[in-house]
Amino acid sequence: MFNMTTDDLSVLDNPLWHSLTTIHKQYCTGEGKIRVVLPEIFPYFAIENPAAEDQLGRIIPWLKAGDHLSLLGAIPARIPEALKLDYKYEIFQMIADRNELLPESLDAAIERIEDSDEVLAIKTDVDPHYYQPDTFKLGRFFGIRDHNKLVAVAGERIKLPGFTEISSVCTYPEYRGRGYATQLITHLHNLNLKEGYIPFLHLTKDNPSIRLYEKLGFRMRSSPSICSFSLEAT
């Protein structure tokens, strides 16, 4: 087990904020209590205290008609009149629960993917949600090929001091059942542990991969919300 207290983990209640004000500060705009991720990275924003009624309205000047920006975390019960809540749903946040390296399989060769277009292509085909052309810049991506075709991929997204989010895990349907996702997640898990970062991840509550992550030593930590906002029509 990691020798960490609840206070140490509290940054994961608002991980994007702590990422955009530290390691990933070059990938956003904003100041004070708000940060807005560059649109080519992914359509999100973060505020210092999402549950505070006086902070959510800070996104209003950053929105134009037709814009939709998402927030990860809690929101206040009362939403400013100028904002429209497009949708809200709860997800799971899981965190690696053991401070030990996982055994790595050599069944398939894993390689660092340097071409962002390759990752964009597989994400577009398999799972296009929350991935934009420059999401690739946020971290390292690794993949498995069948000859020259990239058939499975996983990478890093939100990164803050002490923690790295594993994200963009996907495999073409015809290549599933071969353990490729397990290999890639294990590789990223071990790489981050060696560098002093605890892996964590987010996934929808109906994601069938939950059991896989539990088998790899991840545990449920919280159930945050993803909320999308736009300007209320006038």
UniProtKB/TrEMBL annotation:
It comes from the Bacteria. GO terms for molecular function: acyltransferase activity, transferring groups other than amino-acyl groups. Residues 96-234 form the N-acetyltransferase domain. This is FR47-like protein.
